[in-house]
Amino acid sequence: MKFSVSLYSFFSAIRNGEITPLECIAKAKEMGFDAIEAVDFVMGAATPEEMPEQAKKIKEEADKQGLAVSSFAVGADLLNGQDGSGDTAKEIARVKSMVDIAEILGAPRMRHDITMGQKGDPKSYAALVPQLAEYVREIADYAAAKGIMTMTENHGFFSQDSERVELLYNTVNHPNFGLLCDIGNFTCADENPATAVARVAPYTRYVHAKDFIIKDYYDNDPGEGAFQTRAGNYLRGTVIGHGNVPVKQCLHILKKAGYDDTIAIEFEGMEPALTAIRVGLANLKKYWEEA
After folding, report:
1. Using CA atoms, how far apart are residues 52 and 46, in angstroms rounded to an integer?
2. pLDDT in tens, 22-42
3. What are the two backbone dihedrals, phi and then psi, of residue 103, each rounded to the nearest 5 degrees?
């Protein structure tokens, strides 16, 4: 098992000027990680034109520190486009350009979002899957030629449920396309993480470890730092092991299914990022051994 950390985990510290994206790599090495995960908006590139050069710098620093780049995560909306124009061809071309960045990074995988849902003329997820699968296959074909596996994650509310991402995976039916299983994100769709992980474990090619403090809608609104699930319950990101996500049980399910590749911490809580990541890694390693 290899342990990675998403650069997104350092985001609050980067934003506060405590650390730079490049400095995060040495810090990850110091903490005991095997790899880092690059993220499109946390790489230090102000414009898309700056992305290739920044990717080279991240790759060089990762090599210097003896760390792999386990994956590259990018945002996408294959129906509406990031600019909301609905220009699908433009968005697919943009995501392909992110595959080129993954190649510069030396990442063997790239995760891209699917969609936030049809705007203006709402349709069910199942109704949109055949169309979405065509777009996903086109990107997977492009990435296959570069030796990079594409994935989607249970992420973004609309494409979050285990049944939905399972349906997409089986409809795409492409050897270069897999699922990124985020064990915490299922709670955003009010789904039991252990049950959800059990459903998607056979298709999982990469894992995000994440924890949330979960409060029922009828509890007091926790206020700043929290957000609401699809059904109105409250979530706040926290240190792995400090929340309500059954992390060790999810790891047990993945291990039983034969998963033994890379698990990346994705922290998004209010706690100081560097402390949260360090404690989270210690807990994650312990839980994996115990699972």
Report:
1. 11
2. 999 999 999 999 999 999 999
3. -65, -40
